[in-house]
User: Which sequence fits this backbone?
């Protein structure tokens, strides 16, 4: 079964000269056909250091994309995780587009000049700059990723965005972590026909350092009970997390999770979670413009 993964931090691992768990070999073994790679830089670096790290990660991505990913039948996607270093400098945003960025979030966990991240008080939300950036993203068909926003910023943002994504998160009803989504947020994403990517990170899933397939299954059950079966998928957060679901240490292990899910959920639901929901969302969004057309397997990469 084909797999789509809406978030990983392999580029951040690679720029530190650390071996990522997300490799071409592991993705091919696991059946991954769509993989979003995030550009991430720590918020405690200076703006100059952040820009230099972004440049290095973009170079790594394009080298890897040309040398390893395209020939293997893997569709790579590029996103920006946290836009504090760019703020509302639209020349810098244009540079991101020129380098292939198609999805972006405004913050990591911090409060910056655009919005408030998930670890910040709900006394803070979107700034005027943040609202202007969202409108610019809308106008340039950049997918808006609401991951890492606090609730006030989330609710302000979804008023401005037609089909928001939360690329890597889990369910707050099952564990009340500030990075997780409430039932009201989930229902709103269903109504807006967005997308939710579920992580494999135990501290988000159940608040401990250990989680199993059954814990992930409870996430799926709860989301389906809210009518979210058509908008959920994987947002593994591989290489950005220190612990994973037992048995899901690398993308090569996806077949084991799929086999487990097939024993407990209807095959059509499992197919949607595995790939179809994210693929459909991405096709609809990317074909909405001539500027950055999405390349399907029948429309190969250059």
Assistant:
């Amino acid at each position: 079964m084909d797999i789509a993964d809406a978030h990983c931090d392999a580029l951040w691992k690679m720029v530190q000269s650390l071996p990522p768990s997300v490799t071409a070999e592991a993705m091919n073994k696991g059946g991954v056909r769509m993989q979003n790679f995030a550009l991430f830089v720590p918020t405690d670096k200076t703006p100059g250091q952040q820009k230099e790290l972004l440049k290095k990660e973009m170079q790594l991505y394009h080298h890897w994309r040309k040398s390893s990913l395209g020939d293997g039948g893997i569709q790579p996607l590029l996103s920006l995780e946290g836009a504090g270093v760019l703020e509302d400098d639209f020349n810098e945003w244009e540079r991101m587009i020129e380098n292939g960025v198609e999805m972006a979030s405004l913050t990591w966990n911090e409060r910056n000049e655009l919005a408030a991240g998930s670890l910040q008080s709900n006394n803070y939300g979107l700034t005027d700059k943040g609202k202007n950036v969202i409108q610019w993203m809308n106008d340039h068909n950049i997918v808006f990723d609401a991951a890492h926003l606090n609730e006030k910023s989330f609710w302000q943002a979804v008023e401005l965005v037609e089909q928001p994504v939360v690329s890597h998160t889990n369910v707050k009803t099952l564990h009340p972590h500030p990075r997780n989504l409430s039932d009201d947020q989930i229902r709103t994403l269903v109504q807006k026909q967005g997308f939710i990517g579920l992580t494999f990170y135990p501290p988000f899933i159940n608040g401990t350092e250990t989680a199993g397939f059954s814990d992930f299954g409870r996430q799926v059950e709860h989301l389906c009970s809210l009518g979210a079966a058509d908008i959920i998928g994987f947002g593994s957060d591989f290489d950005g997390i220190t612990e994973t679901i037992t048995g899901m240490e690398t993308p090569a292990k996806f077949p084991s999770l799929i086999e487990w899910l097939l024993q407990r959920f209807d095959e059509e639901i499992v197919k949607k979670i595995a790939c179809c929901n994210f693929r459909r969302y991405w096709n609809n969004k990317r074909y909405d413009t001539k500027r950055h057309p999405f390349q399907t397997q029948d429309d190969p990469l250059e």
